Please model this.
Amino acid sequence: MTTRRKREKDENFPVAFKLFSPQNRQIISCYYQFARLADDIADNPRLSPKEKLQRLDLLEKTLYGQKGFPVFCKPAARLRKVFMQEGLDFSLAADLLTAFRRDAEGMTYETWGQLTNYCQYSAAPVGRFLLALHNENPSTYLPAASLCAALQIVNHIQDAGSDKKSLNRVYFPKKILQKHKLTSDCLDQSSVSPALRLACDEILAKTEEQLKDAAILPHIVHSLPLKIEICVIINLTNIMIYKLKKKDFLAEEIRLSKCDWLFSSVKGTLQGIFARKKTLSTKGI
Model:
């Protein structure tokens, strides 16, 4: 199996980019380029873990204003500039680096809780960034984190085989694998075994719970483009979960079709337009 080449639509970023104003598109693009660079560093097989961490540290220092940065850090400098213009907190980007550092160090995850904690850094900052950019209430951050985690975990399952073989990286919680008498070596196989199917289904069931927690989000954000964006993402994620349940993610590359995108875009647009406002309880936030 060859490494699956990541495309922008595979990332935890807007799937309906043109919905946003030109000003917001510029800053979203800067944010994406920063995250893409950090991800490429963490995934670079030619760099040692120490070298990866050093480069990620330089990105963070540049983001926070260190002068004399190397050329490869230019995306961090550009992001700093637009963040300062918009009055956004640098942690919205810097938190991503925590996840990329874990990737660089080859961390594994014992429990579902540890995996979702990773998603609080690898995915949730993207949601907070978009919400903050649109001046949404911080009460939206919790359901947004659930949506971002669901999207991230689906991506992990899509890439499970190539991540294991090319990067020796495993996101399946060890305790779930052990429950089904498996080790991470099961991801090196050419097809999904019955036991791995059960483990995957358990992870997907937990992911669906994350989506249920996120269902209120389009009803509590004020920005119509964001409402639509959220609804489209929820629909796409549900479609991908269905495909992952039915198909062999080790034997074939599972991707969304043009029809999936069209269906989700039309349905999500209508859902976003007609989403009724709800009040989110602040209990537990």
The mean pLDDT is 91. Residues 65 and 190 are 47 Å apart (CA to CA). DSSP finds 13 helices and no strands in the chain. The radius of gyration is 19 Å.
